[in-house]
Please model this.
Amino acid sequence: MSNQKRNNAFDDKIQRSMNRRLTAYSATKHLLVLVIAILISSISFSQINYEQEITWDKLQKRDYNGAEYYVISPVNVNFSLNDQMLPEIHELISINTQNTDVESIIIDSRFEVLSADEKDKINNLSLIKNQLKINSSIQYIRKKAFIEISILPFRKNPSTGELEKLTYIKLDLKPSGVKKARSSSLKAQANSVLASGKWVKIAVDKDGIYQLTSDELKDMGFNSPANVKVFGNLGGLLPLQNNVASWDDLEEIAIQRNNDHILFYAKGPDKWNYNATTEMYIQENHIYSDNSFYFLTEDVGIGKSILNAPSPAGAAKLTVTAFDDYFFYEPEDTNLIKSGRQWYGDEFNVLESRDYQFNFPNRTSNEELRIKASVIARSSLASSFDILSNGTTVEYIPNIAQVSFGENNTFANSKILTSSFSSAGDNLTITLKYNKPTSSAKAWLNYLTLNARRNLSFTGSQMSFRDVRSVSSGQIAEFNITNCNSAVQVWNVTDPLNNTKISTSLNGSKLSFTVATDSIQEFISFNGSSYLTPTVVGLVENQNIHGNSIPDLTIIVPPRFLQYAEELAKLHEDNDGMNVLLVTNKQVFNEFSSGMPDIAAFRNMMRMFYNRASTESELPKYLMFFGDGSYNNKTAAGNIDLLMTYQTANSLNPISSICTDDFFGYLDETEGDITGKVDIGIGRIPVSTDA
Model:
């Protein structure tokens, strides 16, 4: 895609997001004034009454993304139009507690029947229920607690069946007594390890044992390869929610030092998690990076080494001779509406059937395979998929709903299948066959995941394994691996930062070890015949974002435009007396996401400063992105001219799919993803050229 087309697509997305908000612009201005006024004083939260008369404007016609809607709006309260173009009333009430949830009880209410004209012209009134829809919750703005009330001010009278609008309401707001944790899930370091010493950045693309020889380390400029340390982190995407524990800065990982090389276990960018409900291992694909990154130094760290794993206390109660294996395929080459973070691939159109190859060596013959398949279809009629294994139909994805064609309508509908099937052999050809109901129907693959049971027999030069069936409280299991020799080692890599070497015994070609399996344990076995090799990225200049004082204004900029951002920073320092922190996107990634591009790294940097502030005057005030963005964050992540954008998960509905920089300002512990109140001012100068 050319820069012009990419920027136009991004501008169009921003415009759609702005259009979504313009309908409530006037009300939003009043809401901001209300928030500022409320900050002056707080109410002791034991019980609060909310009472409001509501005056309604006349029926008005609005144009929204090319479509006409009729709406009625309250004139004396704060409101916004929801996705159904119905007004929702919003109020914020400042309180002096930070630890309670809230429940709302209707004390009194009055209604007025909608006019015949209103009933005829207002869209989506069929969605109105018999009871008022009221939501109340505790929200935080710049560390101050507020009760947020949201009211959909319509009901269908349960006695008469008439549609009515709210004209008066009185609520009793009470603390529910449910405590919310206020301790921060982000434990930021005082200084980054990158602040001093020589550092070299390397890249890996998959989980496994990696080797660096003495000659390779010397080529990187290290004087004493035996003293080299490896730093990194846990891999995978950073959490979008603030209350989920997130790693910070770089940590030293345990490695094995030999005479002429070092060995270390590295995690690739993607992550696997076991889902007990579906009884499957499910992949979490890293949507921003194809690589994980690690950092080498000989100047910092303790020289962490692989230690021997402690022996379990007690004898084995279970023998393990098979393990869980998995494989997934997820093409990500198409964003159908050029919005959202979900990507698709492998179009089913002219080619209605596609084959996918999976190999599970030494698969247990009496065990079913587990499959999870996610597909989407764009068709005027309901459509379906057949799933075949080695030419035999084993599953069926029925009734993928039809779509209504139109610029603002859902582009395609999705369907997910989770099931089991039987199929013989280690090599599987899984065929997806799209049953087109019309000649214009199209479909795409989201992902295809298979889980299988394999006999615990060593294959290749290194083999990862785990066994969920061995897990129970107090369990001790003996793992028996066949087809081994004396060269085979086993590491426990459940904690990627603190890998340990397992003590094993060899009886003929059977390698055995005993380990506690209170939780799922991840192992890797290897025989030393070959190792994975990382890619050298290059030297990393010293940096220390963690060591900075709390800035008033933080500017994030791609390296290409750094000199121009420096001029802007100096302008604010000289004219406004601001404390300005200027950092590149790569510097933020190095310290907050182990070098991997990740939108949450920007947010976590701001949360670090936000959490450090002990008074309101110390809180960071502004964040500026000095660079253009795109819906294609993986391209953006690899393009030094672009800064990543937050995209909602929805990539199929142009109305519900949102691009917003607000995400980077949701800094309180209970916020994150698309939910929260912006705690800092955020702006973006969409710089894309030097001109």
